[in-house]
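Practice set, problem 2.
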Amino acid sequence: MKRVTRYCLIVSLLVWTACSCKDNEPPRRITVPEYKPGEVDQPDQTDPNTCFGDKAEEEPDFDVAMDIVKEGELMNFVITLADKKGLRVCGIRLRIAHRAEDPETGEWKPTSEEAYVNVPRLEPNEVLERVTRLSTNEFPSVTGDPGPPEAWSITVDSYNDVRQP
């Protein structure tokens, strides 16, 4: 009987403490404004790979170029991409590859060093410019000087969908 009374006393003490602490809570320094429906703009929930428009039967004709800009110790790829036909293309995957020059023949031979850049959507008649940092993990042989433009190639590896504007 004493055990039951002791447990009841402990439980009631805990409940009383919890209830009485709510009223004694220190004031907050920051006031949180009350939420009112319609005041908050919803972010765009559209999947970036969604293509709008009618399905196009023709294949896109890409114009892709790349330049390497060195800023101090860092090197950036400046990629320019456009579709010559004015189509909307979604889910584009660009392949950047580094080539090494054979010292004996002077020919540029492909190496296993490559990286991929994803472009979610290319709008009709848009010239997209994207800057991507050169990663030493992807291109370990490129240290200091990126080399001449002939050492690099960029191609459209794949794309998901093509639509009419």
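Problem 2, part (b): a different protein.
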Amino acid sequence: MSELMKKYGGLILFYGIIILGVLLLNERFRYLNNLPNINQENLEIEIAFR
């Protein structure tokens, strides 16, 4: 087991970080896609109030 970790530990860490990054990006974009969209009319009203 120790020999395997010496041989492949860096590779496992590298791919683990890539997989973790992909999962975090997936969650981020899922959150952004679930936000209510601002259409053009609401945007104009918001600008007018300011």
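Answer key, part (b): DSSP finds two helices and no strands in the chain. The CA atoms of residues 32 and 46 lie 20 Å apart.
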